[in-house]
């Protein structure tokens, strides 16, 4: 089977979302050895596109979405297509800042459409439009990256998602949960950089100032912990932050130092349940690492207008069939009563 026919056969495979997510989480667990703290935010757009098609379903927007993008400069509805954890909040409260700044040369235009920043997360939406069709061949797709205040920054969670509108236009969303909350303060300078994009040769760059979203931020320091029976692993909920773009949970994972050798430490797959029984998992929860070897985990849930009385963290293993197996003895109830 040639490469083209193979790719078409892969595209035609219909797998249930649950199995896709389970496989993706298993792959992330296997790839943890490469998730070191000093990793760069620069990435191949082809890899990002492939990952997010797996996570988010079809790689093409609806005809209605295409009409929205082609007729008006405001693209708030794009977040519905990307299924970002803050989608509803961004649309309801109009949190995104309209940028509409571009760099155009050699037949390709990069346009930063919107951006949003709340001190803990940064979301940037970019449109690419070419005079000829945009190439997605691996050798032609190029790479891009985002900087804050002129420097690449450390992230706990990051992704780049693409949605083709037609053969000459694609929309891309970058989302980052920063490794350290509020490291950059209320005002930042953001820049999107690209090189040799979609078969076009050259460098593109768009920079713009961005202010933190105005809104209440609530911080809790519960400092509660749990450990498994053999005391190999201890989980501590250090901080819970409620901000306009996410509900962030910082978790410390302690284990014997010898497990660092050969990366034998465990990558937990988390779900979270609040005291009202609302479950946050699958597309409603993102997990990442803000330090080496999984010692500092960050969980990002959708933003919440009403703060629950508690959150229960439910860590799990991924079994040989790529499904979750809850680790009951490490479940951790996090009370949310006092702010610091």
UniProtKB/TrEMBL annotation:
Domain DUF5643: start-end pairs: 219-326
Domain of life of the source: Bacteria
Pfam families for the chain: DUF4179, DUF5643
Domain DUF4179: 41-126
Name of the molecule in the record: DUF4179 domain-containing protein
Origin species: Neobacillus vireti LMG 21834
Lineage: Bacteria, Bacillati, Bacillota, Bacilli, Bacillales
């Amino acid at each position: 089977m040639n490469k083209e026919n193979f790719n078409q056969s892969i595209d035609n495979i219909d797998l249930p979302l649950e199995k896709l997510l389970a496989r993706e989480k298993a792959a992330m667990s296997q790839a943890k050895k490469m998730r070191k703290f000093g990793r760069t935010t620069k990435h191949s757009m082809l890899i990002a596109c492939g990952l997010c098609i797996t996570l988010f379903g079809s790689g093409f927007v609806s005809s209605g979405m295409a009409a929205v993008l082609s007729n008006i400069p405001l693209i708030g509805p794009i977040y519905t297509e990307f299924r970002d954890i803050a989608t509803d909040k961004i649309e309801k409260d109009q949190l995104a800042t309209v940028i509409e700044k571009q760099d155009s040369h050699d037949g390709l235009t990069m346009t930063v459409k919107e951006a949003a920043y709340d001190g803990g997360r940064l979301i940037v939406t970019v449109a690419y439009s070419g005079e000829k069709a945009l190439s997605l061949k691996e050798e032609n797709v190029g790479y891009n990256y985002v900087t804050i205040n002129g420097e690449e920054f450390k992230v706990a969670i990051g992704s780049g998602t693409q949605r083709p509108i037609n053969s000459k236009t694609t929309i891309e969303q970058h989302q980052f949960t920063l490794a350290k909350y509020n490291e950059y303060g209320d005002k930042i300078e953001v820049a999107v950089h690209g090189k040799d994009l979609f078969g076009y040769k050259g460098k593109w760059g768009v920079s713009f100032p961005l202010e933190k979203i105005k809104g209440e931020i609530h911080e809790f320091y519960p400092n509660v912990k749990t450990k498994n029976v053999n005391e190999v692993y201890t989980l501590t909920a250090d901080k819970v932050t409620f901000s306009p773009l996410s509900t962030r949970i910082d978790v410390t994972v302690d284990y014997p130092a010898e497990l660092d050798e050969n990366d034998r430490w465990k990558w937990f797959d988390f779900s979270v349940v609040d005291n009202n029984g609302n479950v946050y998992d699958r597309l409603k929860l993102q997990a990442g690492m803000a330090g080496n070897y999984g010692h500092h985990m960050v969980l990002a849930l959708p933003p919440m207008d009403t703060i629950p009385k508690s959150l229960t963290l439910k860590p799990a293993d991924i079994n040989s069939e790529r499904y979750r197996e809850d680790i009951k003895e490490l479940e951790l109830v996090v009370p949310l009563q006092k702010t610091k």
